[in-house]
Amino acid sequence: MDFHILMLINKIFIIRHHFRIVAKEFSFNHLSETEFEGFCFELLKELDFKNINWRKGTGKKTSPSDNGRDIECEMFVKDIDKKISTEKWFFECKHYLKGVPPEKIQGALSWANAERPDKLVIIVSNFLSNPCKNYIGDFIENNKPPFKIKYWELKELEDLTFGKLRLLKKYKLSDGLDFLEIMHPAHIKYISKPSINTLDYYFSIMDDFNSIKRDEILKNTSGFFINPRYKEPITSTAIPK
After folding, report:
1. DSSP character for 124?
2. What share of the chain has pLDDT > 90, as a percent?
3. Which residue segment(s) compose the domain that 9 sits in?
4. Are residues 48 and 133 in the same domain?
């Protein structure tokens, strides 16, 4: 293995550790309702949805969307026979500091029931209340809607935005991540889900590597993670001859 590749692997372990330290708590609480809808709109673009229509009421920056009619878009899906089909998705965005109550999603359900999309997704900045989740379950049980109902809460949104640096910075969803801008997207993906290599593979490489170069590379890293502490002896001990 090339010396520079081993150096890169070494740096990746350091960056993963650093990432856990600097990333602040993921939250939308600092955004306005319209800003949160703008985030959802841009996230859907990042997720490769097509023909996205943000149904803002008046077109002004502070304009709320029509009730129950936030974002419409399409997803192109490749079937097993490689033919492309089009799915229509409706999105309802709810920005609440607490759990979203059932009455706040009734407009979205009525909209979807009339227009019959393939999927209706409720995007919430924090979480749905338990009564709201029960309401959705009862709606599905009693009405057997021809569309699927999903909801993306805070945790799902955090996962969906991972690595999307422009989006994270624009909406002030993270800080201390400037160092990621100089990294290749493949490196960022490796940091988040390093599934290609195993520890056994890593250690086998280390065993085969030149011992002097290996110790030079790992010297700083081992100290960084192990963080040894040394104490002065409190008693003197004579070393037997």
Report:
1. E
2. 47
3. 3-23+180-226
4. yes
